[in-house]
Structure formats: structure tokens, C-alpha cells
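Researcher: I'd like a candidate sequence for this fold, 613 residues long. If you have to choose between options at a position, lean toward the conservative one.
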């Protein structure tokens, strides 16, 4: 494939896209970029974080050129954009200049501007500046702070470990005359954290009991904070009582909460176990499930064993989580032993446990054995659910026995199991994988006729089948249909990679590039497979061949311009693996985004403060 009019198809298509992006970017951010360039080149600009002796030359015309938005005057939206920009980059000198300019022009200050700044001070470990700005809000900027601003500053102080100061800030702000601060649940949670950190647990309990009187019922975080404080004081009985009270009041510890502080939750449970104070099944079951989801099934088994050694039983839901986790972690032998142990201890398996075993056996490539377990399950009066059948269907397809998978699909009706989109997706995917496109399309049509909306898996499977059969135009029609669907049916990177591969194999490289541009516009990041497809194409389909370095380097820049740092760093990883070093400027941008130098500087500053104190 030669060059046409001085450039390859890839180069020309990329150039068109760059020009388009440049125009759209300037349309959205032209005013801000102009101002920022003016600030950065201004002769009187001082170093970041220091005061400025004179204001930067901000053009009145620029701030009067934007439309009105709500209660904003003309240009106010531009000021807010600048505040966000400088807060994000920790350019506090320029940030102060913007606030001064707004004050001089009698602009209306709204609270969300200050919330952005408080967060920036927190990231930069500058609690003093956060407190100072909070106190200046009403006097200097005529913006009355609410509990949102108060909580934001309180959080900054506590994160720095200044617990005494946090309590002083609370007392002086909440109890002050003419205050607009009405504490909410988050306020009390932060207050309890500070009290517990100081070891003032009795005072924390008093505040906790006052919360309902202040019309702020405790949430799960409140309970967990106080329980942690009690356990650190070896007041285990009170912690267990509080745990039972929490669930009596309808607050249940979710896996999300424990997975945020799982090690602390495990430590809490260990203390309870050693003190013969075990919480109920829901609590330790949640912790065990959290360990399993993080790939720590073996740790979860040890925890369960410790609970059992103290004479406490374990229910079937805990067993199902552990068996499933062990199978997924490749510990099939341990999973089978746990199943045997469960039976020996007289714990009757339910549908959830049976399904976990069936799924594990199918993952091992033993669907026939899993089918025997299904028969036993039905004989014992346990009704299979969607997870049971879907696991077994996938197991037979994986083993190459598509006939058995289809037969299982037919048998499901006998057990009054309604065909839903999960089953349809698995069946369509399996049939397309074995090349039986005609039967897959029959199932597809049946699915649509029954009013069952296909998900992304079903769409992608049919698109893959059509591409394999050479019907790329039909595949693209289906893809464009996906773009009009709901979120769960939107194309993901797998869908795009299927089409990239098919188009590149047909030498439709320009079409593939256009599709890649659309993918980026839809906030879908390329993955390793995407990079490899285009690398292979550039090396094998172009004349002369290209190594792909410039192509991937440009892709990194485009992702960074969209603030998608993870996607950009993943492509850099691919480049390094293929001995394609990024440009020095690109590498510098990636490092800056990943390392955030201001965080490093803040850590150094904190060390100096500790040495001085």
C-alpha cells in the first residue's frame, strides 16, 4: 500500500482527526487557554504557592465574551473554569490572582468554587490555608459557607492528623453566633473519627448518642468508626453490642464498606474471636465475602476456621463464597475438601452452594461431573437458578460440546426456567464461537421476538460471527444499532477490537482509523489487543512498513489531552514491551500525570514540618 498525495491513509486520516480535535478543543477552551498562556508568560509571575505582587493581565474582553449561566454574570463561568484549572494544577499563586480579580469586579462567589479550592488545599497538605479561606468566605467574598464547606475543611484538617485542631475548628464554627452550619451525618462521622484517634472514646459515645437528637441518625460508617475506637481500647463487649444494635436499626455492613477498610475489619473480627465475642452471620460473612472478592480466599478460609474453633457455626452462604473463590483462584482441590467438610459438619447445601460447585467444576473443564451435581441438586429439592444453568452451558461450550449446551437450553423449560437475556447471550456466544452462525441468528431472532433486549455480549458475539463469515457490512450495521441502545448494550473495547481486526484484515485501514477516532470520542480506551492489531497492520499492510511508534505516541497524547491517564499509561506499557520508546515530551507528560509532583513536594514539606515541631 503506497503513499498517496504525500502521506499514507493512516497519516491523512489522523491529520484530519487532529484538525477536527484542534478546532473543537479551541471552541470549548479557547478563552481559558489564552488566559493560562498569558499567566504563564507574564513577567511578574511568581513561583507556585507564593503571593503575587501584581495582578496578571487578564483581558476584560475575554471575561465579557461568555454567555450567562443561571445567576452568573457574563464571564463568571470563565472565572469558575480558571479556578478549577488552577486548583487541579495546584497553582495557588494564579488562583489567588483570580479570586482578587473577581473581588475587584464585584463578581458573585458561589460555594462550589470554594469546595474545589478546599480539595486542592487538602491534596497539597495545606490545612492552614483551607481554614483561613473558610473564615474569609463570608467577610471577604460575601459567600455564606454551608455544612458542605465546613465538612470539606474539617476533613482536610483530620487527614493531616491535627485532631485537636479539628475539634477546635468544630467548636468555633458550629457554636458561633449567626452561623449557617448545621452538622449532618458526615460532620459527626468526622468528629467521631477525631475523638477516637485521640483516644477519647467515652466522649465519642456521648456524641454518638446525641446524633438522633440532632436529627442525624447514624449510618454504617458512624457505627464502624465507633466500633474501631472501642476495639482499640479493648472494649470488645461494647463493640459487639454496637454491632448488634447497628443491624437492629437496619444498618447492615455492605461489602463495599468492608472492602474499603477490609484489613481493619479483619483485625476487628480477630479481636472479637479471641475475646469469644463473635458477631452474627451477616457481619463475618460479609468480611469473608470481601476477602474472597479481593482474591484472598485462602485468608478467608483461615478466618472461617478461627471462627469455627471458637465453637461458632458457619452458614451455607459463607461456604458458597469460599468454594467459589477457591475455584476461581485455581485451588480446586481445596474447594472440594471444603465441600466435603461442609457436608460432614451437617450444613445442608442450598442452591447457592450447589451453583458455586457446578461453576467451579465447569471452570476446571469437567462439565459432565458438574451435570451430575445438577442432577443431585434437583433430587435434593434445590431449584437451579440462572447462575447454575449459565455456568453449565458455558462449561459445555468450553469443552467443545455445543450439542450438549443446546440440549441443556431446551431442558431448562422442563424445569420452569424462563429463558432470559443471560441465557440467550451465552447460547449466541457459544454458537458463534463454534462457527454455527445460522443457528446463532435463529436464537438471535427468537430473542428479539420475545422482547428480550440483547446485551453487549450478545451483540459482540453476533458481530464476531458475521465478521468471521466475511459479512463485515452486516456486522457494521449491527454495530451502529448498538450505538443507539441503552448503556448495557453499548459497544465496549471487545466489540471495537472485533471490528478493527476484521477491517484491517480486509485492508480497510482508513475505516478502522475512523472507527478508532469514534471509540476515543465515546470515552472507550484502547487496550493491549487494540494496540497489537494496529501494530500488526502497520507493519504488514503498509508499503513501506511502519513500526507503529508514531501512531501509538500520538494515541498516548490524545488520551492525555482527554485526562485519561490510565489508558495512556497502558499504551506506553505496550510501546515499551515492543521496544518503541515514546518521545521525550510524551514521556515527560505521562510521568507528570502519574507522579503528580506537587504530591511529592507536599510530602517533603510535611517531613520538614514534623522535624521542626
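Model: Candidate sequence:
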Amino acid at each position: 500500500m503506497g503513499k498517496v498525495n504525500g502521506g499514507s491513509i493512516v497519516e491523512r486520516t489522523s491529520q484530519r482527526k487532529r484538525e477536527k480535535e484542534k478546532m473543537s478543543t479551541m471552541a470549548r477552551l479557547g478563552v481559558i487557554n489564552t488566559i493560562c498562556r498569558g499567566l504563564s508568560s507574564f513577567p511578574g509571575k511568581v513561583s507556585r504557592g507564593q503571593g503575587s505582587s501584581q495582578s496578571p493581565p487578564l483581558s476584560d474582553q475575554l471575561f465579557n465574551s461568555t454567555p450567562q449561566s443561571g445567576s452568573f454574570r457574563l464571564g463568571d463561568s470563565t472565572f469558575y473554569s480558571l479556578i478549577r484549572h488552577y486548583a487541579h494544577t495546584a497553582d495557588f499563586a494564579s488562583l489567588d490572582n483570580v479570586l482578587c480579580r473577581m473581588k475587584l469586579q464585584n463578581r458573585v462567589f458561589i460555594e462550589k468554587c470554594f469546595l474545589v479550592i478546599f480539595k486542592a488545599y487538602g491534596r497539597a497538605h495545606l490545612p492552614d490555608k483551607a481554614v483561613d479561606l473558610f473564615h474569609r468566605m463570608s467577610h471577604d467574598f460575601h459567600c455564606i459557607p454551608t455544612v458542605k464547606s465546613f465538612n470539606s475543611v474539617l476533613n482536610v484538617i483530620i487527614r493531616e492528623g491535627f485532631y485537636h485542631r479539628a475539634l477546635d475548628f468544630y467548636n468555633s464554627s458550629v457554636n458561633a453566633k449567626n452561623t449557617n452550619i448545621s452538622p449532618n451525618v458526615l460532620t459527626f462521622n468526622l468528629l467521631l473519627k477525631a475523638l477516637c484517634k485521640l483516644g477519647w472514646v467515652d466522649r465519642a459515645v456521648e456524641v454518638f448518642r446525641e446524633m438522633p437528637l440532632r436529627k442525624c441518625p447514624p449510618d454504617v460508617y458512624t457505627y464502624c468508626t465507633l466500633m474501631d475506637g472501642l476495639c482499640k481500647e479493648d472494649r470488645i463487649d461494647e463493640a459487639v453490642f454496637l454491632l448488634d444494635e447497628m443491624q437492629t436499626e437496619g444498618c447492615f455492613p455492605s461489602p463495599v464498606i468492608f472492602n474499603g477498610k477490609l484489613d481493619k475489619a479483619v483485625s476487628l473480627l480477630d479481636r472479637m474471636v479471641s475475646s469469644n465475642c463473635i458477631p452474627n452471620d451477616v457481619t463475618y460473612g460479609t468480611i469473608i465475602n470481601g476477602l474472597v472478592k479481593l482474591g484472598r480466599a485462602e485468608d478467608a478460609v483461615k478466618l472461617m476456621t478461627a471462627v469455627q474453633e471458637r465453637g461458632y457455626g458457619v452458614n451455607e452462604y459463607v461456604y458458597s463464597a469460599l468454594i467459589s473463590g477457591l475455584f476461581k483462584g485455581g485451588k480446586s482441590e481445596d474447594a472440594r475438601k471444603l465441600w466435603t467438610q461442609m457436608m460432614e459438619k451437617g450444613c445442608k447445601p442450598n442452591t447457592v452452594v450447589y451453583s458455586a460447585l457446578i461453576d467451579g467444576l465447569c471452570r476446571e473443564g469437567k462439565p459432565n461431573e458438574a451435570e451430575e451435581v445438577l442432577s443431585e441438586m434437583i433430587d435434593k429439592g434445590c431449584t437451579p437458578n440462572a447462575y447454575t444453568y449459565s455456568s453449565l452451558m458455558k462449561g459445555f461450550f468450553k469443552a467443545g460440546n455445543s450439542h450438549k449446551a443446546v440440549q441443556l437450553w431446551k431442558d431448562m423449560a422442563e424445569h420452569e426456567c424462563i429463558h432470559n437475556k443471560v441465557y440467550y447471550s451465552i447460547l449466541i456466544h457459544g454458537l458463534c464461537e463454534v462457527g454455527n452462525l445460522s443457528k446463532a441468528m435463529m436464537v438471535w431472532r427468537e430473542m428479539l421476538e420475545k422482547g428480550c433486549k440483547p446485551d453487549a455480549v450478545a451483540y459482540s458475539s453476533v458481530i464476531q460471527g458475521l465478521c468471521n463469515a466475511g459479512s463485515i457490512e452486516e456486522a457494521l450495521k449491527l454495530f451502529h444499532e448498538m450505538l443507539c441502545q441503552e448503556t448495557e448494550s453499548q459497544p465496549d473495547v471487545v466489540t471495537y477490537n472485533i471490528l478493527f481486526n476484521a477491517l484491517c484484515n480486509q485492508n480497510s485501514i482508513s475505516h478502522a482509523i475512523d472507527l478508532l477516532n469514534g471509540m476515543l470520542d465515546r470515552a472507550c480506551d484502547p487496550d493491549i489487543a487494540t494496540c497489537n492489531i494496529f501494530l500488526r497492520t502497520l507493519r504488514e499492510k503498509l508499503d513501506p512498513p511502519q513500526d507503529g511508534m508514531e501512531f501509538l505516541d500520538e494515541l498516548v497524547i490524545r488520551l492525555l489531552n482527554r485526562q485519561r491517564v490510565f489508558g495512556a499509561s497502558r499504551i506506553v506499557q505496550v510501546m515499551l514491551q515492543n521496544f518503541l520508546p515514546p518521545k521525550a515530551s510524551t514521556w515527560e507528560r505521562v510521568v507528570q500525570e502519574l507522579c503528580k509532583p506537587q504530591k511529592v513536594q507536599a510530602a517533603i514539606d510535611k517531613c520538614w514540618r514534623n522535624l521542626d515541631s
